[in-house]
Amino acid sequence: MPHLQILALSLLMASVDGFSRIATHPLIGKKVEGSSFSADDGTDTTPVCSVARRSFIASATALILRPGASAAAAAEGDAAPEIFMEGELASSGTQFDPFRLERMPSRKAKRAVEQYGDRYSRVVRAGSVDPYDMIGVGITLNQAERGGQVIVSALPRKGSPAHDAGLQLGDKVLTVNGKSTAGESVFQVVEHVFENARAKTISLGVEQAGSNERRNVVLPRDFSGIADPVRYQVLDKRPDGTAVGYVQLRTFNSRSYLRMMDALSSLKSQGANALAIDVRNNGGGSLQSALWIAKLFLGGNKIIVRTEGRERSVYRATKSNVMVGTSVPIVLMINKGSASATEIFASALRDNCRALVIGQTSYGKGLIQAGIGLKDGSRAFVTTGKYLTANGREIQGRGITPDVRMKGTDLAAIDFKRVSDMLSPPNCLPPSG
Prior knowledge:
The chain is of the alpha+beta class. Helices cover about 15% and strands about 25% of the residues. The protein has helices at about 105-115, 160-165, 185-195, 255-270, 285-295, 340-350, 415-420, and strands at about 10-15, 20, 35, 55-60, 60-65, 120-125, 140-145, 150, 170-175, 180, 200-205, 215-220, 230-235, 245-250, 275-280, 300-310, 315, 330-335, 355-360, 365-375, 380-390, 405. The strands form 6 sheets. It has a 6-stranded mixed sheet, with helices on both faces. Strands 6, 16, 17, 20 and 21 form a 5-stranded antiparallel sheet that branches. A 4-stranded antiparallel sheet has the order 10-9-11-12, covered by helices on one side. The longest helix has 14 residues, at about 255-270. It starts with 10 loop residues before the first strand and ends in an 11-residue tail after the last helix.
């Protein structure tokens, strides 16, 4: 991994009276061989938490290369990424109702998606493995149009635990692990599963489609074949007592939450008291995975993301899942390949003053995608709205602007005590409301 050293930082502070730049670079006015000092280039200098009567970090851009390093050096893996595209807002005025797709013959539903006029909406064929099956039993759940009951909305994946147990398209899911699903959204149902994320089995109370026959099935949760998205290690133990733990999170799939917990627990046991989270070239994945991982760093009813679409909503860290307290400074690395759920995760940590974001402006993909099961087992992904950051800023088409613009990182060279200061009041305050 190429090496960069932060010797000093320039802070752009915002206040009700305007902006003032505090330059602290010790070598201003001197030519430094192989250095890179980048000021704001007009892309987006809005403060991280742009609310009146507060002062916040917006940029920290004075960078000096370690001797012998190249200013043009790019981070490992900075090649053009494969983005997990999830959809784009349809043209205004459309009457297309994506939730009717599940009732159509599959061929007709696929044609409807093609005619939607949305270049990102698409249909994904059924496969042997679904990396975004957060329940882990091979079923797609949705809510029935009438009554709102949670139902099996697509054929269970062939060879999956749900398929082997005889679950069918249209079966009603009345309970999950003994909890009634009445009046709950699919999102809330999956939340219950996450509350006991390490459970090896899941219990479903099911009413068979077309009859009143009810039964309870206990299904093994199967995540075999899902790639491990997390790598981690302690990179650096310094004379000042700082021990830097590094976590690379490559996608938000059905294993990401548990593997992140494993990583954080292991790093803590090894003495890590500062973290670097690398989500460069992470093109997104499951929103719920990203939200629950954000909860590992956020508590106290903090806002994680806002939505606009059929309904406006705010998602908060209401459960006490915090594994990393505020005493641990965090840098979070992004680049142009960081997209979608990754941008929601990054903005949640930054807006709530839990991480300093470094790297390049992210992709700019902030659209809500409904995953709808079709009768042949394939899934349609269709846009239904958009996400906003915790402080209400648009992601779509803009991306997340890093606090420090840079290519490549030498984490051993970053001053985490300075990072901690930058993330603390009065330099940074989380959004409210």
